[in-house]
Amino acid sequence: MFPKLTILNCGSAKPTDTQSPSSQIFHLRAKDYLIDCGEGTQLTMAQMGILPPSRLNNIFISHLHADHCLGLIGLLSTLGMLHRTADINIFAPAPAKKILQPQLDFFCDDITYKININEINPRKNEIILEDNTIRISTIPLKHKVPCCGYLFEEQQKLRHYCKDIGDRFNIPIAYINKIKQGEDYITEQGDTIPNSLLTTDPEPPFRYAYCSDTAYYEKIIPIIEGVDCLYHEATFLTERQQRAKETGHSTATQAATIAKMAKVKQLIIGHFSSRYQQFEDFLKEAQEIFPNTRLATKQTIINF
Questions:
Q1: What pTM did the predictor assign?
Q2: Is 67 a catalytic residue?
Q3: Residue 287: burial class (beta carbons within 10 Å; 0-12, 13-18, 19+)
C-alpha cells in the first residue's frame, strides 16, 4: 500500500464557510496517523466516510493553540460512543496533560478504551515513536508558543527476492525471508550465493514532514532535507510579511524558500488566514520559487 495524505481541514484560527482549522491524516502501510485536530475534524471525517478511523492509534498535536486541538475531545468522546477498545496515544507539547486530562475526566469518563498522553519536548529534534513500520520524530519550530512539526519516515523495506534465480539454486522457502533481509545463501556444498545475485534493491523509504505554525526558520532544513513531501504553513502572502513575523507565521514565499533550500521533492502549503477568500495567489507566489508546489484543500486525498 502506497503512502497517502488526507487533508481534512487546512484553515487557520478563524473558521470560514470554506475552511476549518488544521487537521490531516498520514496513511502508511495500513496505519493512520492523525496530525493536529482542530475544531470540525470529526465532522469532516464523517463527511468523508472515515469516521471512525479504525486504523488510528496515534495522534500528534503540534502545539496547544485552539485551532490545532479543540476538536480532540469531541473526537475521543465519539470513539468511545462507537465502542472503541484499542488504546490511543496522544503526543503533544507540555502542558498537554494539565489541559487535556481534566477534559477527558469530565467528558470521557466512561469511554471503552485507554488514552495515553505523551508530553514531548518541542525544542528538541528527537524520535518519539518507532516500530517496524515507521519512525516519527519532532521538528522544532518557531512560533509564539512551544510548537513542533513531525517527520514521518518509513522504515527500510525488505529487498526484492528474485524467485527465478532462487529456484535455480533450490533455496528453501524457509530461508527466503533472511535473504530479503540481506543475507547471502550458503548451499549444502558450502558455496556462497551472494545476496546481490538473489535480490534487487527495495524502493527508497518514504519521508513526510509536517511543519505547522512557524515563522521562517532555516534551522529546520537539515531535519527535513530531501523529504518526499513537505507540508509547510503559509498563513500570509508576502504583502503581509511583517504581520507574519509578528504572529509567528510564514508567507507563501518563505515556505517555498524553505522547500527549495531543503531540496524537498514536493511542497504543500496551507493554514491560510481567513482574511483571504481565494488562494491562487498563494500558489503563484510559492511556485515562482518552488514550482512543485500545491495548495492544501479541504477534504483532499493525495496519493504519493
A1: 0.92
A2: yes
A3: middle
